[in-house]
User: Fold this.
Amino acid sequence: MNKKNLFYLILIVAVAILFRLWHLDKPEGMWNDEYLTWKIASAKLPTEFFEGLRSNCHAPLHYLYLKLWMFIFHDQDKFLRLSSVVLGVLGVITMYFVALEYKNKEGTQTALAATTLCAISSFLIYFSQEIRIYSLLFFITTLMLLYALKIFNNPSKKNFAFYSLFCVLLILTHTIGFVFVIFSTAALMVFAVPKKKNGNFMLYSILGVILLTLPFVPLIANILIKGSYFSQWWAPFNFSRTFFSLTDIYSPVLCDTFHIYNKFTDAFYKNNIVNLGFLVFAIIPTLIGILCFINGALNPKRMQGYLLSVILCTILTVLIAAMAGKIVFVTKYLIEIVPLIILITADGFVSFKSKGFRIAIATIFIVLNVFYFIVSETSAVRLIRKEGQRLPVLALSDMGLKKNDKIIFLYYAKEWFYKYVDFNNTDNEPFLNAAQITKHNYSFYFDGQYLKDRKLVENGQKAYRLVYASDKNKFFDDRLNIETFKYLNKGSRLFVVDLTSVSFFPKNILGQIVQNDDIYNTTPQLYLAMSYAKDFILNKAKKELEYDGYYNTGAWRIYVFKKA
Assistant:
C-alpha cells in the first residue's frame, strides 16, 4: 500500500470512527432488546447465563463478548455502546482487504470505495451504536467473506480453516446465520473449488463447521422452535415494506429500521402530498446504489456468481420465511449480505469508464448521505429509541412520584426499568411494587390462565376474542383490585405506563376488528391484547378515581389518576 492510499484509508477510518462516536450516549437509555442483551450478558455463568439464552432468540457469542467487555470496562450505557462501535470500525477496515482480495490485490480504488460506503452507511452506523448483535455480525461476515474470496485466489488449507472458523462464529452469533453459511458454502463448492483436491478441502471444512457447532445444536434448536421466536405475531408481513431494505442500505433514511411507514408508497406520496425529502435523500442515493450494483453484477467473474447466488438465495429464504409468518422481514436480519452488496456496488462504481460520471454520482451520493447524517434530526445517530426505558423513569420522577403512589406497567416488565431507578430514594419504591401486564403474562390477567410462548401465540387469538368483545371481565377487575386499587389511599396517585406503539386501538376500533373475521385473523394478537388491557384499566380508573391527564415521552404515554 503506497502512502497516498494509506492516507486515504486512514482518513476514511477516521470518518467512520467520528460518525460512530457522535451522539453515542443516548439520553433515552436502552430499549427492550438492548436491555435484554445487557441482562443476559450480566447473568452469572454458567446456569443463569445459559438459562437466559434459552429464553431468548439469539445465539451466545455476542453475549459472551459483551460479558468480557463489561469485565474489562463498565456497564454504563455509553460504554456498552462503545463495544459495538469498535466492532463496526473493524468491519469497515476489513472491507478494505475484502475488496483488495476481490480484485486480486489490484483493486485499490474498489477497496477505497467499499470502505467509504461502509464508513458513511447510516444503516451500519446505527447498529454500531446499538447494544445488539448486529455490529459483531457484520464484522464476522466481512472476515468470512475475506477468506471465501481468498479461497478463490488460493485454495489452501489455511484459507479453508479460517473460512470454517468464521462460519462457526457467525452461526454462534446469529440464530438464523446458518442460512447464510449454507448458501455461502454451497456457492463456494460450485464456483471456487472445481478441482478434486480443493473439493476435499471444502468437505473437511464443512465437517469442521459441523463438529465445532455440534455442542450448540440443542440450544439453537430450542431457540428456533420456541414460540416467542416466531415474532410475526407482532408484525404481519407486508411485501411493500421489503423495498425499504434498499433505501436502508443505500440511503441515510432508515425507514425499515424504525418502521416509520406501513407501505413503501406512503414514504413519498400520501394524502396527495409528495414527500420531497424522501425522494431526494432516500430515492436518489438508492437509485445510484442500484445502478452501481447492476454494473458490478454484470462483470464476468467467477466470484460474481458466488456473491450473487448467496445474496439471492439468502433474500429468498428470509422472504419465504416472512411470508409464512416465521420471522419478520427487516433489513437487520439480512445484515450478512450487506458486505456482499457493498462489495459489488463499489466494484460497479469503479467499473464505469467515464471518470466524470464517477465523480458526479459519487459527489451526489456522498453529499446527500453525509448532509442528511449531519443535519437531519432523524439521522442515524439522532434517531430516538422511542421505547427507551429511561424515558418513563425520568417522566415519573419529574411528575413527583411518591412512595404511596402505584404504577401499572403495560407491555414491559417492571424489572426492565430498574437500571435507571435509584432505589436509595424511597419515593422510587412504587417501581418494586408495581403491577405489570406484559407481552408474556396478559393471559393470566384476562382469565386466570398462564399461557406461555407458543401457546400464547397460537391460542391467544381464538381464546380471547369474546374477552375483547365484552365490556366486563370480573377476573381482570378483581386482579386489578388485589394488586393495585386497594392500596390507593386518599391523595395517592395511580400511574398507568403504556407503550403506545403496541396498544393503539381505541375501544370502538377494537370492537369493529373483533366483529370482522378477515381483519381479526390478520391483526397481530399482541396489538389486540395490549389495546384491550389499556382500555380496560383506563375505563376502570376513570370510574373510581379522578383523571389527572397524561404525559407523552417517546413511545410512552403515562396516564395519571388520583384518589379523591
Observations:
- Residues 293 and 341 are 7 Å apart (CA to CA).
- The mean pLDDT is 88.
